[in-house]
Amino acid sequence: MTAPLSQDLRKRLVRAVEQGSSARAAAARFAVSASAAIKLVQRVRVTGSTEPAKIGGYRKPLLAGQEDLLRELTTTRPGITLAEIRDALIERGLEPGSLTTIWSTLRRLGLSHKKSRCERPSRSGRMSPITAADGGSGSASWTQPCSSSSTRPVPPPT
Of all helices (H) and strands (E), which one includes residue 75? Predict the structure, then answer.
């Protein structure tokens, strides 16, 4: 990323445009890009200042303010997955963003979650689903809802 134009150059560009030159002609004269000159002139017209806009800075996390809800979800439903947390947040009218956003918020809060659903145990076969990279279809059709030692048993199908 490039640095902002110097304040001196910004003032000369604006002065040239105010004296009747087009922003593109002023850009060519001072060897800057046309888009930089056009945006600078627009900024001066809106704000009246040639100062550059703020670059970078801190961005508040998307789930800031939802810490209590996330704590409630992870404590009342042990073994909840990130996808289930996302669905619960959407049901409450929140836009959680990606699963990575939820994961980083849980990590920041020191909360844990289940990484994936349980799969059937195997004595001789793979313990992870066959992906498309392994030559499979990419879907784990044999994945069944189940429980682990940290979750309640799933009721038998009726």
Answer: helix 67-76
Contact 50, 11 (CB under 8 A): yes
As a whole number of angstroms, the distance between CA 127 and CA 115 comes to: 15
CA distances from 25 to 29, 34, 116 (A): 6, 8, 59
Residue 55 has pLDDT above 70, yes or no: yes
Residue with tokens 């800075």: 57
Q: Over the range 41-63, which residues count as b (16 or more CB within 10 Å of their CB) and which as e?
A: bebbeeeeebeeeeeeeeeeebb
Indicate if the pLDDT at residue 132 is higher than 50: yes
What's CA 29's distance to the chain center, in Å?
Answer: 41
C-alpha distance from residue 60 to each of 47, 57, 88, 105 (Å): 26, 10, 21, 11
Model confidence at 122, pLDDT cuts 50, 70, 90, reads: low
Q: Is 50 exceeded by the pLDDT of residue 62? A: yes
- Chain centroid to Cα 117, Å, comes to 24
- pLDDT greater than 60 at residue 148: no
